[in-house]
Automatic annotation (TrEMBL):
This is Lycopene cyclase. InterPro entries: FAD/NAD-bd_sf. Gene3D superfamilies: FAD/NAD(P)-binding domain (3.50.50.60). SUPFAM superfamilies: FAD/NAD(P)-binding domain. It comes from the Bacteria. It comes from Streptomyces silvensis.
C-alpha cells in the first residue's frame, strides 16, 4: 500500500455538517494563535451513495448568529396545532427559528477554507480510522481505486454510527416537498413546528411541518416518530393527504423533495475511539434524542474542539447535552414507545403551558433545575414517573442498522 504524503495535524473524516463546521471553526474561530497554523486534511466521500443529498437544517438562536447571512429564511413566531386543529402560537423572543440549506452552508465553508492556507481536501472512501504510534492513521480508497493513508496528530470521524446498546431506539423519519402554489397560500410570519392533524399511530406520533418561504412557496413535511421508516409511496400518500385535505392546497407544484431519518435513542454514543481518534456530530451524540435537532449541538461541539486545539490541550469533543437532559429524554422516548403517553397530546400541552422562549431553552438543555421541574409538572406526571422508575430495570439491547437517508437534524 502506498503512503500518501499528506501528513497533517488534523484529519477530518466526512464533509457533512460536523466535518465542515470543525474545519470552519479551526480557520475562523482562531484567526491568530496556535489553531491558525495547524494543517488540516478534510477527507470527503466521492460523489455517490456515501455522500448525503442536499437537505435543510433548522435551529434557533438570537439574531446575529455566525451564519445569519446564509439563512434561507427565519421566523419570529412558531405554531403548534393539536389534533382538533386549534392553533397555539408562540413568540420565543429573543430567539428566532432559522432555516439553513446544506448546499449554501457547504459552498460557504468550502470557499472559506479553500481560500485559507494549511487546508487540504481529498475525495476518498475511508475504510479505517485508528491510532498509530505517533497519532492517528486514516486508511482510504480513492475514487480511482487506489489505497491511501493519511497520518495525523488528531483524527475526527463524523461518519454516522449506530449507538451502543439502547433501551429505546426510535427514528424521526420524514419526507418533505418544496411546493409552489398559484395563489398566495402561506403566512410567512409563522412556522408550523408540529401540526397533529394527521392520522396518529398507536404509539409514537406523526405530524405535519410547514416552513413558509414566500406566500407561494414552502417546505411541507410529513414526519413520524416510530421504529421503522415508510416506503416512498407511503410518504407521498401521507403528504398528499396532509397537503390537500388538511392544508387545503389544490393547485401546487412539487419542485424538490428531501427525505431522511434521525436517530431518537437513549443509546450511548462514545466520543473517543482512541488516544488520538475522536467522533464528532451525530456519531458523537450531537443529536438531541427527544427532538432530532442537531445543528446547534454540532456547533457547540466543534467550536469546543477548535478551542482545545488552539489551546494545545487534548481535543476531546464535549457532550452536547448534560446527563440530566439525556435522562429526561430517555424517559420520554420510552413513554412514547410503550404508548403510556399520547405523543400528539404531550407536545401540544407542553407548547400550550410553557412559554415559547423557555421551551426552546429546555429543548436545547439550557434551563435550570427549577425550570425543568416546572416543565415536568406540565407533563402526564403519573405515566412519566412510572417510566422513570422502571428505566433502571429495563435491559439495553443492540440497536438496528441506521435507516436510509439519515441526515443531520432539523
Amino acid at each position: 500500500m502506498r503512503t500518501c504524503g499528506h501528513d497533517t495535524d488534523v484529519a477530518i473524516v466526512g464533509a457533512g455538517a460536523a466535518g465542515l463546521s470543525l474545519a470552519h471553526w479551526l480557520r475562523s474561530g482562531s484567526p491568530t494563535g496556535r489553531a491558525a497554523s495547524l494543517t488540516v486534511t478534510l477527507i470527503d466521500a466521492p460523489v455517490g451513495p456515501l455522500r448525503p443529498a442536499e437537505r435543510t437544517w433548522c435551529f434557533w438562536e438570537r439574531p446575529g448568529g455566525p451564519f445569519d447571512a446564509l439563512l434561507t429564511s427565519s421566523w419570529q413566531r412558531l405554531r403548534v396545532r393539536g389534533r382538533a386543529g386549534a392553533p397555539l402560537v408562540g413568540r420565543p423572543e429573543p430567539f428566532r427559528y432559522k432555516m439553513l440549506s446544506s448546499a449554501t452552508f457547504t459552498s460557504y465553508v468550502e470557499s472559506f477554507i479553500d481560500a485559507t492556507p494549511y487546508v487540504r481536501r481529498i475525495e476518498a472512501r475511508v475504510t479505517q480510522v485508528r491510532d498509530s504510534g505517533d497519532g492517528a492513521e486514516v486508511r482510504a480508497v480513492t475514487s480511482g481505486g487506489a489505497p491511501m493513508r493519511v497520518h495525523a496528530r488528531w483524527a475526527f470521524d463524523s461518519r454516522p454510527r449506530r449507538p451502543e446498546s439502547a433501551r429505546t431506539a426510535l427514528l424521526q423519519h420524514f419526507r418533505g416537498w418544496f411546493v409552489r402554489t398559484e395563489r398566495p397560500s402561506f403566512d410567512t410570519s409563522v412556522a408550523d413546528l408540529m401540526d397533529f392533524r394527521t392520522p396518529q399511530p398507536p404509539t409514537g406520533l406523526s405530524f405535519g411541518y410547514v416552513l413558509p418561504l414566500s406566500p407561494h412557496t414552502a417546505l411541507v413535511e410529513y414526519t413520524e416518530f416510530s421504529g421503522d421508516v415508510l416506503s416512498d409511496e407511503e410518504y407521498d400518500r401521507a403528504l398528499r393527504q396532509y397537503t390537500e385535505e388538511v392544508l387545503g392546497l389544490r393547485s401546487y407544484e412539487v419542485t424538490r423533495t428531501e427525505q431522511g431519518a434521525i436517530p431518537m435513542t437513549d443509546g450511548r454514543f462514545p466520543r473517543r475511539d482512541g488516544a488520538s481518534v475522536f467522533r464528532i456530530g451525530t456519531a458523537a451524540g450531537a443529536t438531541r434524542p427527544s427532538t432530532g435537532y442537531t445543528f446547534a449541538g454540532i456547533q457547540r461541539q466543534t467550536r469546543a474542539v477548535a478551542a482545545a486545539l488552539g489551546a494545545g490541550t487534548t481535543p476531546v469533543p464535549p457532550a452536547a447535552y448534560p446527563p440530566r437532559a439525556l435522562l429526561m429524554d430517555a424517559v420520554l422516548l420510552r413513554a412514547l414507545d410503550t404508548g403510556r403517553v399520547r405523543g400528539a397530546d404531550f407536545f401540544t400541552d407542553l407548547f400550550r403551558h410553557v412559554p415559547a422562549e423557555r421551551l426552546l431553552r429546555f429543548l436545547d438543555a439550557d434551563t435550570r433545575m427549577w425550570e425543568d421541574i416546572a416543565i415536568g409538572l406540565r407533563t402526564p406526571v403519573g405515566p412519566m414517573l412510572r417510566t422513570l422508575a422502571e428505566l433502571p430495570l429495563t435491559s439495553r439491547r443492540a440497536t438496528p442498522a441506521a435507516a436510509r437517508g439519515q441526515r443531520v437534524g432539523r
